[in-house]
Amino acid sequence: MFGVGGAIVSTPALRLLLHVAPLLAVGTTLPVVIPAAMSGGLVYWRRGLIEKRLVLPIVAGGVGGSLFGAFLTRFTSGHVLLIVTSIVILGIGGQFIYKALTGRDSFEGLFGVSNAGASNKSGLPLTVAIGAAAGLVSGLLGIGGAIVLNPALVFGLRVPIKKAFGTSLMIIAILAVPGSLVHAALGHIDWSLAGLLALGVVPGGYLGARVTARAKSRTVGLAFGLFLLAVALILGVSELASLL
C-alpha cells in the first residue's frame, strides 16, 4: 500500500510476536523486501505510477549505502538499531499527518505536482544523495530504505505521492539485494523464516498496491502517516522495555 516493501511491518512483528533475536529480525526481513516490492511494483508499473527517470541515479547512490549500512550492523546493538528505527519512523509519520491535516495548498503542491526538474543535472547530486541515504537505512535497519526514500521523493523532489510509492518499490527491490548479501555473510538471516514470510508478501504486496492506486492522494498521505505512527510507538516502547 505504502511503497515500503513490508519490512517496516515484519521487522517489529518478528520481534513482538515471534521473539526473534534483534539482529535476525533486522536481517531476515531484508531479502523478503525483494519479492514484496516486485509484487506491488508491478501494479504501479502497469498504471504508469513510476518515475523511471529517477530510478538509476537513486540506485547508483543507494548500492554503496546499502553495503555500508549492512556492514555497520556488525558493530551495533540490535536493540539500539530498532529504537533508532522507531524514532525515524515516528518523525516521518508525524510529517505526513501534519501535511494531510493542515497543508492544503502546500499539500497539493507536494502531493499533486511532479518536479519536472528533478532529473536535470542540477538535481542529480541531490538525487544520488537521496539514494545513498536510503541505501544506508536499508542496509543498517533492514527495512528497505523506504522510510527515507518516500519522504525524500515527496518532500524533496516533489513527486506525487502515488508515483513516489511506486518508484520507491522499484528502487528498494534493487537496494535490498546488496544489503541482503552482506547480512547473509554476517549470519543475520534465518532463511527458513524468510521463505515463510515470502509466501505472504507476494499476494499482500499486489493487493495493497491495487488499493492505493485507486485511493485519493490526501487519504493515502494521512493513512501512511498514521500507519508509521502506530508502528513506531509499538516498536519503540517494546525495545525500550527490553533494554530497561
List keywords for this structure.
0% strand; 244 residues; mainly alpha
How is this structure best described in words?
The protein has 244 residues and is mainly α. It has one domain (7-243). Helices cover 80% and strands 0% of the residues. It is built from 10 helices and no strands. The chain has helices spanning 7-16, 22-46, 52-72, 78-102, 104-112, 124-141, 146-156, 161-185, 191-214, 217-243. Helix 1 runs parallel beside helix 10 (217-243) and helix 7 (146-156) runs antiparallel to helix 8 (161-185). The chain is globular. The termini are far apart. Residues 104-122 have low confidence and may be disordered.
Topology diagram in text:
Blueprint lengths: L6 H10 L5 H25 L5 H21 L5 H25 L1 H9 L11 H18 L4 H11 L4 H25 L5 H24 L2 H27 L1
Helix pairs in contact: 1-2, 1-10, 2-8, 2-9, 3-6, 3-8, 4-10, 6-7, 6-8, 7-8
For the sheet with most strands, the description reads: none
Mean of residue pLDDT values: 81
Global structural class: mainly alpha
Report the principal-axis shape.
Answer: globular
Instruction: Return the string of H and E elements.
Output: HHHHHHHHHH
Helix content: over 70%
Counting DSSP E segments of at least 2 residues, the number of strands comes to 0
User: What proportion of the residues form beta strands (DSSP E)?
Assistant: under 5%
Rg over CA atoms, rounded to whole Å, is 17 Å
